[in-house]
Design brief:
heterodimer; A: 331 residues; mainly alpha; ABC transporter involved in vitamin B12 uptake, BtuC; two-stranded antiparallel sheet; 3% strand; B: 380 residues; two-stranded antiparallel ribbon; 4 strands; 74% helix
């Protein structure tokens, strides 16, 4: 099944990297690539839940953006309220960061689970109704967010731990003296870690087998004695948690959050999962990297067209491969 | 004769007919029945959005194509008029040129969208149109020299359509219905006298009646289309595309034709909106919120009935205009409770509409019109 031959996703990714390298200097390219990878990592966190929910549950959740905002607000609340009270050491900052991550994940996960039960479960198997209901759900969630946190943007100061940059020594050839931002480095690494974890869980564990089999043929898995309803709920909740986590990182990345940030991010998330192929986690990762890199490269070359270029890339891929780069069987 | 005008597709419910007639009377009476400027603006906007929602219903309810790019047509019409009057001067010719060009671009866009359905599945189509609409919104926001960016454009009306143009050179009699009703309640003797007023019929009113006529014509045309053999094929595609194809229908052509018709009508509505509203911006022609509103109108009224879209648009705009007042009254009831205040603050009106929307999809999947028709089917 899996081969080592380069697939369309590898080819496209190399093409984008090469095009970037040819149109700018090496140093700029390195910095932008790192930023693109960081952005891709965050996009992957946000998009993986939506693509998993589609792959496994056949649910198209257009309220995913609202869950992202929710995570950002939950994380920022802890951050803004508690950060000053903690000791100003590296450990103190981790103490502030980890609970923020946990809070973002648990709030988004909890709301996601409730949302799945209350809003989405009655409309399983009907895409049109799912889209309508989740659009309504997104309105409600966004309005509630505004009701509780106010309509004005909230500033989220980045902790010292994530500020500043790593400077490469001058002695390194080609790229000596290059400054790599710490936050982006950490985010990129973190995203890669989560990707590895998710892929490992899906492809190397017993639960992963059940989930993947459920994607292929739900009835058959149930015949073999697995109850799928709890698995579905768990996957949806996990996806919501990742979305919340991604939202929290995005808040730190932009250093400001609004209740409507989810709307714009939802578009990027949609682009990512279409690029990768609806339902495919691996495709979602490559789609996220592509979207992040193209956004940053084009943003550097033609600042006005960054978001348009990402959508253009999506349309081009859609014309080339109508079901995305790594299509899932039978979507 | 009425049957022929409605193409034999009657409202099929006494209540529905009554409400539609009331709506028609309000729209036709317009400035002669409501002295309030706010009500007049609301009625004009209603006329525009009735056409937009009905056209969208042709795609959503009859062809089951969920497109989030419908506002693009609306924006094309609106910006077409705004840009033409800006660059060619405020004349009727400029308006015509703007509308013509906008229709041309809408046709091209509709053909592209139709061709897209050939290549990708329904669900990809919905998501792809969402992304494309977003990209276009960004383009309009970025192209500040051309479109005015987020500030939008002021539409320079031809003098004949402006508020300064007194069409009949004399004041016409009007009867303020809200005031009359209030008067009949409190002081029936002088109510009629109190409610009378006179009206200067200006170019603004010409635009108003033009857009109402456009909406009426558009809705009647759509009624005819959905009852025609063409419309029946659309329904067949909705119910079972594979079977329709097997029967020999080129489904892509039918779907494309539906998008073209819906797109052109929406473009015209956009032009009418620009002339009536006199100001176009990404927020009022192109935003994602507006797209969701159009979706809400169709779903609350009832998808796939056209009458539902008409009713839904009217009710939605009424709610948008007056729900905030209702919420303000509700918030007053329990002023010391912060949670209550947060939920019933006037700016939270969208929350309640969202809730209504979700409940509507669950319990009245056929919308108001479907519910009314079902009631009639039960006890005719």
């Amino acid at each position: 099944m899996r081969t080592l031959l380069p697939g369309p996703h590898h080819r496209l990714l190399s093409l984008v990297l090469l095009a970037g390298l040819l149109s700018m200097g090496v140093k700029t390219w390195l910095v932008l690539t790192l930023s693109g990878l960081a952005m891709g990592s965050m996009l992957f966190l946000m998009a993986s839940g939506m693509t998993l929910a589609f792959g496994l549950l056949r649910v198209l959740n257009l309220a995913h953006g609202a869950l992202i905002s929710l995570g950002a607000f939950a994380g920022a609340t802890w951050w803004v309220v508690r950060a000053q009270a903690l000791p100003d050491t590296v450990w103190g900052q981790w103490l502030a960061l980890l609970p923020a991550m946990l809070l973002a994940m648990s709030v988004a996960g909890l709301v996601g689970a409730v949302f799945e039960r209350l809003v989405i479960r009655p409309v399983y198997g009907n895409y049109l109704k799912q889209m309508l209901v989740t659009v309504g759900g997104a309105i409600i969630l966004t309005q509630l967010l505004q009701g509780f946190w106010g309509a004005s943007p909230i500033a989220v100061p980045r902790p010292d731990l994530l500020r500043g940059s790593l400077v490469l020594p001058q002695s390194v050839p080609w790229v000596g003296g290059l400054a790599l931002e710490k936050f982006r480095l950490l985010t990129a690494l973190f995203g890669l870690g989560v990707y590895a974890l998710v892929i490992h869980a899906l492809e190397r564990t017993r639960w992963g087998v059940v989930i993947r089999a459920g994607v292929e043929d739900r009835e058959m898995v149930e015949m073999l004695g697995h109850r799928m309803a709890p698995v579905f709920l768990a996957v949806f909740t996990l996806g919501a948690m990742l979305a919340g986590l991604g939202g929290m990182f995005w808040g730190l990345y932009q250093e400001v959050i609004t209740a409507h940030m989810g709307d714009e991010l939802l578009i990027l998330v949609i682009v990512v999962i279409i690029l990768g192929g609806l339902g495919s986690v691996r495709g979602c990762f490559y789609g996220a990297l592509l979207a992040g890199l193209v956004n940053l490269y084009v943003g550097y070359l033609l600042p006005a067209l960054a978001s348009v270029a990402v959508v253009g890339l999506m349309m081009a891929v859609l014309m080339w491969r109508p079901r995305g780069l790594i299509p899932v069987a039978d979507t | 004769m009425i049957d022929a005008m409605l193409s034999g597709d009657r409202p099929a419910s006494r209540w529905l007919s009554a409400v539609l007639l009331l709506l028609l009377a309000c729209l036709a009476g317009g400035p002669f029945l409501f002295a309030d400027v706010r009500a007049f603006t609301l009625l004009g906007t209603m006329g525009v959005f009735i056409l937009v929602a009905a056209a969208y219903d042709l795609m959503l309810g009859y062809a089951h194509m969920v497109s989030f790019a419908h506002t693009l047509f609306f924006a094309l019409g609106a910006y077409g008029v705004a840009l033409a009057t800006l660059h060619l001067g405020p004349t009727l010719t400029a308006v015509a040129v703007g509308v013509g060009l906008a229709l041309l671009f809408s046709l091209l866009l509709a053909l592209v969208l139709g061709a897209l359905t050939l290549r990708v599945q329904a669900i990809f189509f919905a998501l792809a149109t969402l992304a494309v609409a977003f990209a276009c919104l960004h383009l309009v926001l970025q192209a500040y020299p051309l479109t005015g960016g987020a500030d939008g454009l002021r539409v320079r009306l031809p003098a004949a359509l402006g508020p300064g143009h007194d069409v009949f050179q004399t004041r016409l009699p009007g009867l303020d219905v809200p005031r009359l009703l209030r008067g009949l309640w409190s002081d029936p003797a002088t109510a009629w006298e109190q409610a009378r007023y006179s009206l200067r019929f200006t170019g603004r009113h010409l635009v108003y009646y033009a857009s109402i006529a456009l909406a009426l014509g558009g809705v009647l045309l759509l009624l005819r289309v959905v009852r025609s053999p063409f419309g029946q094929v659309l329904l067949a595609i909705r119910e079972n595309e594979f079977r329709a194809r097997a029967l020999g229908y080129r489904t892509v052509r039918y779907r494309t034709a539906a998008v073209v018709l819906a797109g052109l009508l929406t473009c015209l509505a956009g032009a009418a909106f620009a002339l009536f509203n006199r100001y176009v911006s990404p927020t009022n022609t192109l935003s994602f919120d507006l797209m969701v509103f159009i979706l809400l109108m169709c779903v609350i009224g009832g998808m796939g009935t056209l009458y539902g879209a008409v009713l839904g648009a009217a009710l939605f705009l009424l709610a948008q205009g007056y729900l905030q007042d209702v919420l303000a009254v509700l918030a007053e009831l329990w002023p010391e409770q912060p949670l209550w205040q947060a939920l019933f603050a006037p700016q939270r009106w969208l929350l309640w509409l969202g809730l209504l929307f979700v409940l509507c999809v669950y319990w009245f999947p056929d919308g108001i019109v479907g519910r009314l028709r079902a009631a009639r089917a039960k006890n005719p």
